[in-house]
Amino acid sequence: MSPQRKRTPPDTSEAVDALMSALEHPHKPAVEALRRAILAADAAIAEGVKWNAPSFRTHEYFATVHLRAKNGVALILHRGAKVRALPGNGLAIDDPAGLLHWLGADRAQVAFAGVDDVERRAPALQALLRQWIAAL
């Protein structure tokens, strides 16, 4: 397990609350629903602000809301800010709902049309997130 890094003020739920309070976005309800779904996926998930967006971590950041998606809102799944070696067999993520759009060997995107789409697909997203976290 990697050592815990020092948390800074942006690494808090309070920082995300402040960001969300000021956020003017056509899909703000979807962003809020996405935030709830991610935090409910696993008790080990914490949140903070990275890249001016809600981001989520366990021991490392692994997901960031993509607020500039052209349609709706998206979640970028990654393996932190620094490039790290992939497991020998790559990222083996079971995706029966077909949510993942791979952006590279270590990054994927899940796009949502709006709040109803987030709420409908939340269980499948949460299953993906648990796998992603296990692969960190």
Q: Summed up, what is this model?
A:
The chain is built from three helices and six strands.
Folded structure, characterized:
This protein has 136 residues and is of the alpha+beta class. It has one domain: Aspartate Aminotransferase, domain 1 (Alpha-Beta Complex), CATH 3.90.1150. The chain has 3 helices and 6 strands, in the order ααββββββα. A hairpin with a 3-residue loop joins β2 and β3. α2 runs parallel beside α3. The chain starts with 12 loop residues before the first helix and ends with a helix. This is DUF1801 domain-containing protein. It comes from Luteimonas composti.
Notable traits:
single chain; 136 residues; alpha+beta; Aspartate Aminotransferase, domain 1; 6 strands; globular
How would a crystallographer describe the biggest sheet?
Answer: 6 strands, antiparallel
State the share of residues found in helices, binned by percent.
Answer: 25-40%
Point out poorly predicted stretches: none
Please list the strands of the largest sheet in the order they lie side by side. 1-2-3-4-6-5
Number of strands: 6
User: Strand-residue fraction?
Assistant: 15-25%
Q: Class in CATH?
A: Alpha Beta
Total helix count?
A: 3
Shape: globular
**What name is given to the CATH topology?**
Aspartate Aminotransferase, domain 1
Q: Report mean pLDDT, rounded to a whole number.
A: 89
Organism: Luteimonas composti
Domain YdhG-like: 28-133
InterPro entries: YdhG-like
Protein name: DUF1801 domain-containing protein
